[in-house]
Amino acid sequence: EPEVTQTPSHQVTQMGQEVILRCVPISNHLYFYWYRQILGQKVEFLVSFYNNEISEKSEIFDDQFSVERPDGSNFTLKIRSTKLEDSAMYFCASRRQGSYEQYFGPGTRLTVT
Amino acid sequence: QQQVKQSPQSLIVQKGGIPIINCAYENTAFDYFPWYQQFPGKGPALLIAIRPDVSEKKEGRFTISFNKSAKQFSLHIMDSQPGDSATYFCAASVSSASKIIFGSGTRLSIRP
Fold this sequence. Notes:
The complex is a heterodimer.
Chain A: E1 5-7, E2 10-13, E3 19-24, E4 31-37, E5 44-50, E6 53-57, E7 65-68, E8 75-79, E9 88-95, E10 103-104, E11 108-112
Parallel strand pairs in A: 2-11
Antiparallel strand pairs in A: 1-3, 3-8, 4-5, 4-9, 5-6, 7-8, 9-10, 9-11
Chain B: E1 4-7, E2 10-14, E3 20-25, E4 33-38, E5 45-50, E6 56-59, E7 62-67, E8 72-77, E9 86-92, E10 101-102, E11 106-111
Parallel strand pairs in B: 2-11
Antiparallel strand pairs in B: 1-3, 3-8, 4-5, 4-9, 6-7, 7-8, 9-10, 9-11
């Protein structure tokens, strides 16, 4: 069964550094999402992406964040200058056209020190 | 109005019991209500989902009950097993293109 994959599984970075989190959505899916989950809290929406542009973004998704689909398979989330409060699990999700079902990847644990 | 309120925060049930997790919403524009199961260190996995035009949906041992007038929905797990121990999130979205809004989660523990 096709799955969303994410790399790396764990990223440790120093405050102020840039990080790029990578996702490979399910191949026939056209809608892509990033969510984050601070330890012990609920999953929060960050951004949705369709047809090479952002469809919707949350208040969390400020100018420090950006997303890109650099090729036909990858979907990335970049944080330009990480803060301590960016430490969280980041989940990528994808969805095919005409379906409500979003499928989540296993997540990247980001630790900012 | 964009929130989904979930209770209880944690739940302990004996094997074979029927845990029930409840959720409530305000936004009547929500038209899709999924439940996700999450094991430690893993991503949320879609368990079962319902649209507001039906009052109940069953998939295996999992049942969603939906009360549109009360703006509430719940998850029942029949014949619960220790392997069902996980965190369960209810959620909602407006249209298929929209973000999913998650409840706060219920940590379920099934005792052998």
